[in-house]
Amino acid sequence: MAREHLDLSTNVVEMRNIVKKFGDFTANDGINLTVHKGEIHAILGENGAGKSTLMNQLYGLYKPTSGEIFVNGKRLDMNTPRDAIDAGIGMVHQHFMLVQPFTVTENIVLGTEPRKGIRLDMAEARKNVVEISEKYGLSIDPDAKIEDISVGMQQRVEILKALYRGADVLILDEPTASLTPQEIVELIDIMHNLTADGKSIILITHKLKEIKESADFCTIIRLGKYIGTVDVETVNEDQLASMMVGRQVTFQVDKPEQEPGDVVLDVRDLHGVDYRNVEILRGLNLQVRKGEIVGIAGIDGNGQTELVEIITGLRKGTKGSITVGGVDIFNKSPRTGFEAGVSSIPADRQKHGLVLDFSVEENLILQNYKDAPFSKGGLLQRDAIRSFATDAIKKYDIRPGDCEERPAGTLSGGNQQKVIIAREVENDKELLIAVNPTRGLDVGAIEYVHKYIVEQRNKGKAVLLVSFELDEIMSLSDRIDVIYAGQIVSEVAGRDADENELGLMMAGGKQHG
Fold first, then answer.
1. Which residues, in sequence order, are CB contacts of 161 under 8 Å at separation 6+?
2. 209 alpha-carbon distance from chain centroid
3. Rounded to whole angstroms, how far apart are CA atoms 133 and 137?
4. What is the phi/psi pair of residue 464, to 5°?
5. How does residue 365 score in pLDDT terms, banded at 50, 70 and 90?
6. Could you tell me if 205 and 42 are in contact, meaning their C-beta atoms sit under 8 angstroms apart?
7. Does 437 sit behind a cis peptide bond, omega within 30 degrees of 0 on the bond before it?
8. How far apart are CA 496 and CA 473, in angstroms?
9. Band of pLDDT at residue 349, cut at 50, 70 and 90
10. Helix (H, G, I), strand (E, B) or coil at 268
11. Rounded CA gap, 352 and 303, in Å?
12. Rounded to a whole number, what is the distance in angstroms from the first to the last CA of the chain?
């Protein structure tokens, strides 16, 4: 990797012996971090290891219990995010800090709006936003409302918001969690453009491949403790993985050959519109059988989101038919779909997956709270709920291990994802729809999730996997359907899949099937 813009003689950020306690719980236990000018510095650790907590202290959202922070050689007290922004630090959070009813432009300029006299000059704001988005190659619709755009597009808005404020040090917390492979390549290019411009980037990620492709140095944290800092050029992915989790990690998915059974999900001639009321699904056909995993491979914006939302009852289709186990669920309620045998791991865990103010144990029984053993005579059976939650937390390695009564919103992003996966897999329905199921998870957790998805398939369940991780699609799927312009354009057996060929099909090129 070219490092001509890396200046090891200039420390832009130093965090020395940072300790952060929440009551009796120590989230950061003596962590050190040094970031140089023009550097991409990755922070690697398992879900709940304390990475985001560390960065939230640099950004002024938390105050360290002890330790010191230096920016450009000057010791600073980061009491608020305003202190961090004034020091030239910007942060893109894993869970977006966006105002849903506002437009893309309004969100990006919020708090720094250009004015004409006493009036806001939104035309100027829009022009500025378009300019900066073009400069960094982050295409967005400046007039779209946040509530109407995809997770991937919201991520771009967050990145643009930080860039708009002119940060010299940019903290990116899982920035690629919801991006397509092509968008990830673009983002890495953008990061290199920024560092060539003298900016420094702190990258929180679980993706070892991305660390190897983009980072200069990597600091590893395990269970809140500082493990070490390595020069990325001198280590491989396996070494990084074992430093992170403290054991060997296997990246192979063990999947016995089996013949699929009867059709569970049958989608015929499906048409649907996107948030702009523009037709995005144009006669899509799809079948998933018992005992098989069907992966949907496609670039974001080709109708995957709308397809899943229509199947799960979150959006109405304009034409077509959908049956699950022979039961018509087209344009019916989510409850009808659930009762027909649909469980789903949604793309946006906070919007559609969890009630953040509810406890972990309450979230684990969201769809089943009226059923035995969780309810009797209309009254919740707290002991049964607690027992189920305790077992699920242990089985799915949800951390911390005693979080039954904690609000789900207080867990790390990866552990929130594990709560949803535990609930949906334990629901044990005939069809499991998994949308980016390992988004924001570390390699150890990904290993577990893949095991549970394959387990469902081996038990004769039908699994529809929608993921922007081509590696995941290729390693898990028995059959891969390529979606392009709202239609399934190609079908490939999972074992025959080739990444380059799939990429070409996803872009509307070569077709077969």
1. 92, 107, 108, 110
2. 16
3. 6
4. -105, 115
5. very high
6. yes
7. no
8. 12
9. confident
10. strand
11. 18
12. 39
Task: Write down the residue that tokens 């025959």 correspond to.
Answer: 496
Cα–Cα distance measured from residue 54 to residue 73, given in angstroms and rounded to the nearest whole number: 19
pTM of the model: 0.71
Give the position of tokens 């590696």.
471
Calculate the average pLDDT of the chain: 91
Strands 7-22 and 225-231: unpaired
Residue in the structure block whose two tokens are 């004034």: 86
Place of tokens 């600073």: 76
What dihedral do alpha carbons 429, 251, 94, 398 form, nearest 10°? 60
pLDDT digits (tens, 9 = 90+) for 255-270: 899 999 999 999 999 9
pLDDT at residue 178 is higher than 70: no
DSSP H helices, 100-173, are: 104-109, 122-135, 151-164
Q: What percent of the chain is predicted at pLDDT more than 70?
A: 97
Structure tokens at 337: 């779909």
Percentage of the chain exceeding pLDDT 90: 65
Which H helix or E strand runs over 221?
strand 217-222
Contact 218, 232 (CB under 8 A): yes
